[in-house]
Write a structure and sequence with these properties.
Number of helices: 5
Structural class: alpha+beta
Mean pLDDT: 88
Helix content: 25-40%
Strand content: 15-25%
Oligomer: single chain
Strand order of the largest sheet: 1-4
Number of strands: 6
Radius of gyration: 17 Å
Low-confidence stretches: none
Distance between the termini: 23 Å
Length: about 150
């Protein structure tokens, strides 16, 4: 995984993947540090690709080796690199659950645990229509875990 601190958006766009297209110029309204650096951190991390797997069941994806790989990848990506990124929330979505056929619910829980280990808050955006209900269910689970004082430790 990599982390880019101080990134700024210059272009508005539309689409995703092969349909991604430039739409217009973009004026980034993000908060800035005293030196003008945007208070933004972008993380890129790869996910396991299950497109060519014989089986894409949740049981297969919960294989210990796969789980450790994904958890370590997410934990490295979400760990704050410095004081600048420590208080920034993580905005994420269905990492590895679209084209790579990963289980969205499992990937969300992995990301939630990784963010918690790094002391970061998380905002989950399930963009796919079929996963909108899951976003609400994840929020309900979060409220329940906080109420019951459950932690990742």
């Amino acid at each position: 995984s990599i982390q880019i601190v101080g990134a700024e958006q210059f272009s508005a766009y539309q689409g995703f993947g092969f349909s991604l297209r430039y739409r217009d110029n973009y004026q980034d309204p993000c908060e800035r540090d005293s030196d003008g650096t945007p208070r933004v951190s972008i993380v890129a991390m790869d996910a396991l690709d299950f497109r060519y797997s014989r089986s894409t069941t949740v049981v297969e994806q919960m294989n210990e080796e796969f789980m450790l790989r994904e958890m370590n990848k997410a934990a490295a990506a979400f760990h704050p690199t410095n004081a600048f990124t420590r208080d920034l929330p993580i905005a994420t979505g269905n990492w590895g659950a679209g084209a790579f056929l990963g289980c969205a619910q499992l990937k969300a829980l992995i990301q939630w645990a990784a963010a918690s280990l790094g002391g970061r808050s998380i905002r989950y955006f399930p963009f796919d229509q079929d996963k909108k209900l899951f976003g609400k269910q994840l929020q309900e689970l979060s409220v329940l875990c906080v109420h019951r004082k459950k932690t990742t430790g």
